[in-house]
Amino acid sequence: MSRSQHTRSQSGGTGGPSLRLLRVGENVRHAIAAILTRGEVQDPDLDGKSVTVSEVRISPDLRNATVFVMPLGGDPKGVITKALNKNSAFLRGAMSKVVHMKYMPRLTFKIDESFDEASHIDNLLRDPKVKRDLESP
């Protein structure tokens, strides 16, 4: 099997992540969420903060993971994401006790802006001009 055929078969031929990558990402998401919920990370910037882990995207080689988070109340100054990135090695080690993989992926934390985008689209669809255009035949 050539390299391009191998890559295409891993992604299901749709250009999206394979079922395996989605499954691994979901396992990592659950593990990180549990660690954060239990308050295992000892960082003053995270003390008493509620953080939702909405998605984890794993690279095809399983070496890197982008973790999308949504802190309750937002993170306008990026304090929470900086604290999570600073503690990513600890999180990676704690995660290795729960998720069994040959290589633990490096974690990069980012704010999940998909909720803001969905809200913006919803507001656009409620605009009277757009509503009128959608209702016309």
Structure, explained:
The chain has 137 residues and is α+β, with helices and mostly antiparallel strands. It has one domain (3-112): GMP Synthetase, Chain A, domain 3. The protein is 47% helix and 16% strand. It has six helices and three strands, in the order H-H-E-E-H-H-E-H-H. The protein has helices spanning 3-10, 19-37, 79-86, 88-96, 114-126, 128-135; strands at 51-58, 64-71, 106-111. It has a three-stranded mixed sheet. Strand 1 and strand 2 form a beta hairpin. The radius of gyration is 19 Å and the shape is flat. The relative contact order is 0.13. Residues 1-12 have low confidence and may be disordered.
Note the main attributes of this structure.
137 residues, alpha+beta, GMP Synthetase, Chain A, domain 3, 3-stranded mixed beta sheet
List the SSEs and their pairings.
Blueprint: H1 3-10, H2 19-37, E1 51-58, E2 64-71, H3 79-86, H4 88-96, E3 106-111, H5 114-126, H6 128-135
Parallel strand pairs: 2-3
Antiparallel strand pairs: 1-2
